[in-house]
Amino acid sequence: MSKGTVVLAYSGGLDTSCILVWLKEEGYDVITFLANIGQEEDFDAAKKKAESLGAKKVFIEDLRAEFVEEFIWPSVQASAIYEDRYLLGTSVARPCIARRQIQIARQEGAQYVSHGATGKGNDQIRFELTCYALYPEVKIIAPWRIPEFYNRFVGRKDLMEYAKKHGIPVPVTPKAPWSMDANLMHISHAPADLYLMTKSPEDAPNSPDVLEIEFKKGVCLSVYISSSHVVGLFSPLVQLGFMIQRRHGVGRIDIVENRFIGMKSRGIYETPGGTILYHAHLDIETFTLDREVRRIKQGLGVKFAEMLYNGFWYSPECEFVRHCIDKSQESVDGKVQLSVFKGQVYILGRESPKSLYNEELVSMDVQGDYDPCDASGFIKINAVRLREHHRLQGEHRSKH
Amino acid sequence: MSKGTVVLAYSGGLDTSCILVWLKEEGYDVITFLANIGQEEDFDAAKKKAESLGAKKVFIEDLRAEFVEEFIWPSVQASAIYEDRYLLGTSVARPCIARRQIQIARQEGAQYVSHGATGKGNDQIRFELTCYALYPEVKIIAPWRIPEFYNRFVGRKDLMEYAKKHGIPVPVTPKAPWSMDANLMHISHAPADLYLMTKSPEDAPNSPDVLEIEFKKGVCLSVYISSSHVVGLFSPLVQLGFMIQRRHGVGRIDIVENRFIGMKSRGIYETPGGTILYHAHLDIETFTLDREVRRIKQGLGVKFAEMLYNGFWYSPECEFVRHCIDKSQESVDGKVQLSVFKGQVYILGRESPKSLYNEELVSMDVQGDYDPCDASGFIKINAVRLREHHRLQGEHRSKH
Amino acid sequence: MSKGTVVLAYSGGLDTSCILVWLKEEGYDVITFLANIGQEEDFDAAKKKAESLGAKKVFIEDLRAEFVEEFIWPSVQASAIYEDRYLLGTSVARPCIARRQIQIARQEGAQYVSHGATGKGNDQIRFELTCYALYPEVKIIAPWRIPEFYNRFVGRKDLMEYAKKHGIPVPVTPKAPWSMDANLMHISHAPADLYLMTKSPEDAPNSPDVLEIEFKKGVCLSVYISSSHVVGLFSPLVQLGFMIQRRHGVGRIDIVENRFIGMKSRGIYETPGGTILYHAHLDIETFTLDREVRRIKQGLGVKFAEMLYNGFWYSPECEFVRHCIDKSQESVDGKVQLSVFKGQVYILGRESPKSLYNEELVSMDVQGDYDPCDASGFIKINAVRLREHHRLQGEHRSKH
Amino acid sequence: MSKGTVVLAYSGGLDTSCILVWLKEEGYDVITFLANIGQEEDFDAAKKKAESLGAKKVFIEDLRAEFVEEFIWPSVQASAIYEDRYLLGTSVARPCIARRQIQIARQEGAQYVSHGATGKGNDQIRFELTCYALYPEVKIIAPWRIPEFYNRFVGRKDLMEYAKKHGIPVPVTPKAPWSMDANLMHISHAPADLYLMTKSPEDAPNSPDVLEIEFKKGVCLSVYISSSHVVGLFSPLVQLGFMIQRRHGVGRIDIVENRFIGMKSRGIYETPGGTILYHAHLDIETFTLDREVRRIKQGLGVKFAEMLYNGFWYSPECEFVRHCIDKSQESVDGKVQLSVFKGQVYILGRESPKSLYNEELVSMDVQGDYDPCDASGFIKINAVRLREHHRLQGEHRSKH
Predict the structure, then answer these.
(1) Which terminal CB of chain D, N or C, has fewer other CB atoms within 10 Å?
(2) Which residue out of D302, D376, D390 would a mutagenesis test of the A interface target, given it has the greatest number of A Cβ atoms within 10 Å?
(3) Are strands D334-341 and D209-216 parallel, antiparallel or unpaired?
(4) Domain at D5-180: CATH code
(5) Is 50 exceeded by the pLDDT of residue C179?
(6) Which chain B residues are closer than 8 Å to D293 by Cβ?
(7) Where are the domains of chain A?
């Protein structure tokens, strides 16, 4: 007699394979779900493995298009960056994956979902808040927070033994545990790992590649690399684009960040495409947006980044902020030229039909419709408050 | 009969030399003032030039120490960056220079100050707000905003002719007009210029330099380059430090920015030392500051950067914010290791006696004083609001 | 030969009557424009007066509907309040008036607009920024900033003499100079004046009136007073509503505020209807909006109030913020019951089809779908950071 | 054999009396602690009751002075108000009470603390975060979150029966359960209750009382009521002050608020003294603070209010923000005159040796050191951006 059906976020790796078998042992019917968000993975092999381990159904879903369009683009529009450095490549994938998992759970009549995220990390939160928001009655099984599970599997050795005992194929060269965190945009590592996605800047080519990126309403429309048109940065042709970015070693960071649960943790990230897009978007945005609109939008972007990091993509506030940010991007159209070289992105120029940059107005040689005398009044009125402040302080000084 | 005494911010260049003579023509006694804030300049030659042009007195002041300690350090503490990209190397020098100019004006009994900043730029504002704040009764002569002046000197040619007529030495190879904007921290250019301070990343050495920077209360205490101790990044030994940073091509940006007066303008900046310090400070700060303190401080830093850019260093709000930011840095002590290579700064590691990073707490292998079950409650309570929102939307959907 | 045509914002009072004649003297053709925004005024008399003084054309425009719908409603949605106290009743009328003035100027081919606002106040800025934003080529004649004018009319006596000389009817009992600042929403006074719009709370009735206000998307839909339906708070039936609010003495404040030009000034305001709407809207908003959406919207509202106060209604940032705030109000539907008594508004209750208030969820007697144990985890995870902070401080204490 | 010692926050009421006995049943030694923060309570009776129920030790602590000086004053300085309406009278008492409870626990060697707060409210969080922050190793027993307890005591009837069985005196007229929420500043109610602290405005006296409140660095120094000096608003003479405030019915609100755990709940609050102080402080602050300092401080105050509401008084960020706010108040000195009448506070005037209000500067009759022409330049420069925006939109319109 089954306890019910669980949809398990399955990576094909050791951890979630063990969880699959353990859930069956516990009396659940298990459906596995593996999202293709651009990571390098042998999806067929993963499917066969899940089936051989007793999954009742196996879903392999290509989410790349929706991942880019519904999740990455809004993040680029927002210039989303956490604590001034992290481009949120892992965070942005979580709601995309969990949404589909919930769709499968509803469609298959499953009351349970499960995942292999640890009990100290951010991903458990991102995953589960999405699930609760989209399927409030769902029950979540998080084995790494269940004492019977985590006390049984204290180290990797315990998982290996369990795997051997239950016929779970054990990786010969143990695949790095970060595998679930790789996607189209980014890869994250345990500190001990080597960088995997990007070339070392030292080994990168000795001449730059020149790109042109075109934006429409703050969203990347197309990319030209050394003049050849690449439609859609994350389209099927994306591989080309990524190879180029990867070979220049762009987007590597080694940081300490603050998790939502209140710990500091070290993270090593490679975000080649995201880094280039961040810089290009920033440039075209400053070029086309009014100063004060941008300032307000910047504040909203900081909030958006926190929501995204903390797992609140599917919250009323995040929906509201995404709407506002999208509205702010209406005039963010244009092209940015940049070069990529030895780990760095250099903006070379930009052009836009909607630019507020007025060469004549700003020129030192042309007065145009600008009267320099006005600046005197502007400065003097701005000084009224400062002079009053000084006057008062002077009075106080003279009294004491 | 003199109209009074003017203290003129004098650069030694063509513009301010013409202004010097013009002010004399207009009937003023002129005292020139030239600040040494680390720019490459032949100060003796400038002194002689001013004297030969009839300056009543000539002040050449070495402000390097106070520039670093009172202006650059607070900016580094604040992670001051304007519109996400510009490290404010010009902005931060203005109040330092204008403060001394005001001190000279008071000491010499001058009622006037003058400068050569244009009528469309930010520098006029930074300069004059400082003057009004510190010497509210001062009168400011800004020739580039006086019709008699700017209508007479429409182009460079007019200045050259005036110079020849009045015995002002004319530069053979015309020195770039940015000369006043170079300082210890940074250089800014007109777009047409070549980069001058830093090497091109393409021509930079093929192997990185490794630095260690030590911070105390968010302020840079010392720098070690390849193990040799360099006391004080901007001290007499600064040259060494700068050469190393410069030869790696760090800190070049080409941006469009929003001026205070409401125009967009293009700026080319080189900020080698400032860029390295920005990254190093950011790293040690995230390592040592509590998450929420940092978040509040980050918001204050954004405000500080705007004040700095707009010229409000000597305002009550900027004094207040500097105090708050300084307070936030009490625990920002430690060392950051980084490598500098081909235009990029890579953080290699950090250490601190005051770190909140707790390796045991964050470890996946050690539960320590952390109960993973708590995370379930944390997530479920965070989901209360999201589920209510969904419930309400569901009700509405079912009604329509 | 005319210098051109000026559209003058004309109040019918002494000041703008003198300005009308003075502009003619200066060689302009003058068109007067008087907006009806709900102030008590004899518009016919004003029209005749302007004609008799030589206005080429006289426009009297009833802007009450657009004033309410396009300006007051967005301000109520925003909970717009300046420096925590001032409900912006004067500020919100300015862009409405100036917009129509600009429409008239364009339609009549006038290159000039003029107004009687003083050179130290906010209204000149609100007025002129609207004009420049909507008609960038317009030329503005602000007599109180023109030395020939303000040096000639140093005091009221000079105006009176000028009036007598030019056949301008002089008020016998001098009408208070605040007349232009009265409108549907509010009245503002010079400090010396008596309150005019509202009854003194001491003289107010000894029993409260009970109102019910209905909102739809954050906008006031209708008002019921003691059960009789009043459609539209500012509609023709508004008089009734206002009389009731006025007779209870609601909305009087005596404050010192910070003007945009940097001075502090004292203001006495009466805003009966605006005060009631502010409280009613705040109540229904908190009832229906998600907590975090409201928090973000609150921040936007603070910014909106500053823009409104400073005259930036027609700016890209204000348009953006109005859009965002309007979006936030999508679910702000419902009814608020309140009583008005002796100068105070008391919320009695509220109801809404879109409320997130869930009596069962919050009840202490019903657990419902809420597990109190989750709160333990929530609290302990929130404490992780606090305990780490304490641990570190303890270590430091033990070392010293 | 005892399980250990618990320090129980004891109110003397039915709930915590039952908890006392239940803890003993569970095998703990119980120390009770009752804080005097100004609530009306028979402390002697409470002491005897606790002793008779088997408390090992009974602490009755008069915290009124520290409550006012260390908790209420900083809140007044901050203008702390939650969601624009709630003056945080309950929130601000919690860290004060919990701090002493922790001191007692440490001093008595108790490893446990306990309280009677429910599992859905804010107080459990405020209480426990303080405990964890100040005593990270403490163990907390929250019976209303322990299934064995809350499943046994489902309704009030179960508590009554338990009380009878264990000789706990049962109140004849059941005392309202809000008793713990009354303090010097405020009282909070269950919605069904009557207002208890303040008179109904309808029954309030028909003539106002006039007060003068003196501030020093943003803190209330003394109060004069109808000319008689009352030293310290919360000092022993506080009763007089409170009676006066209470008899005018000031500070009643009926609101729906957002709890930290994500629910909306209705609250009825009476905050007579706090409301008067809020308005008086706001007035003197706007009078004496620079506009921009106040704006930044206002943002910090909003954050402070959230921290206070959510229970983060003893957090690094709240300590930081309190420091900053205190710094901002350095010049907030002066006296405010106000009248209290029928539920409302009217500011009558204010004076300060540190005011930035400059009557001459703001006067319309005196130009003083102010040149109205400067305002033209100020406005025109502010319009540069708006005109550019319009120009661009015009271009776009003309193209389409």
Answers:
(1) N
(2) D376
(3) antiparallel
(4) 3.40.50.620
(5) no
(6) 316-317, 320
(7) 5-180, 186-289+331-351, 359-399
